[in-house]
Amino acid sequence: xxxxxxxxxxxxxxxxxxxxxxxxxxxxxxxxxxxxxxxxxxxxxxxxxxxxxxxxxxxxxxxxxxxxxxxxxxxxxxxxxxxxxxxxxxxxxxxxxxxxxxxxxxxxxxxxxxxxxxxxxxxxxxxxxxxxxxxxxxxxxxxxxxxxxxxxxxxxxxxxxxxxxxxxxxxxxxxxxxxxxxxxxxxxxxxxxxxxxxxxxxxxxxxxxxxxxxxxxxxxxxxxxxxxxxxxxxxxxxxxxxxxxxxxxxxxxxxxxxxxxxxxxxxxxxxxxxxxxxxxxxxxxxxxxxxxxxxxxxxxxxxxxxxxxxxxxxxxxxxxxxxxxxxxxxxxxxxxxxxxxxxxxxxxxxxxxxxxxxxxxxxxxxxxxxxxxxxxxxxxxxxxxxxxxxxx
Length: 392
Description:
By secondary structure, this protein is of the alpha+beta class. The protein has eleven helices and 22 strands.
């Protein structure tokens, strides 16, 4: 079964599957950008690793974990057994009503792994289940059944459900707000000291006028600014500001018709991904199962720095045209390493491309990423726990 540290059970039980986004600044320091309640990418990472092994077997010693779905199901079963002292007999893997084809292979791969172990598993969206006495029942044909375990793989999901859930909607009360995530992680880092990563200075703005004022203050202190919806996702509506003369015009153009709150952050002078003659913005997506770091990959922007506007080349989300970049651990890192002849499509994922260059991290930096990931998971998990305790 999946091994985890019982010392932090109170935290990790509330954030059992974590996806965290980091930057590397130009001095190779890790900077936490945000956390995700429902992170996609583990099956992509598995298939990318298989592709690299097929085409560049000399990199096998540097890849680390490969079977991320198997390990994920191990973690789900450990989570359930810790709560119920038995194995589940049935599992629901949820999916958005729209289906979101981008990650459907991942959901079905999880279901297949449960089924392979003799556990009944079904993938279903909200139209196929109903709630009765705080329990979810799923319709299969003309009957309903109550799954023992729920693996939540969509963002819109009911709260206060009695069944064990990986991850419950209550996680989103923290991760769904960029400023709240910043605040709880900041407070935790101050409490423990000796933080393995840093946070960009972040402020909450209730409207455009507040965002303008905060941005002007940061600019007056010599910092460039990033403004994004406080509850945004998929890298949309992100605005970069480097000059005080641009503040009002850029923010009003981007958000004038939107009644939303905003997160205003200092812009980090980040490291670039150097690929041949071009350089790209990138971030690191790191994953943890039951509080334990299991792996990471890079998402690099689809277009080089300087082509188009910064709002175009400054965002690396896969849904915005970014490419998947594998990470390998090598004593010679950090460095960019060519592993294949060309950019490839990852099998089963029609719209996800894998770069033919990998990013090599040295063991020391890889260890720092591990520590940073596990520390952030505990910070968020404890925050969710406190919220639930106060709600009782």
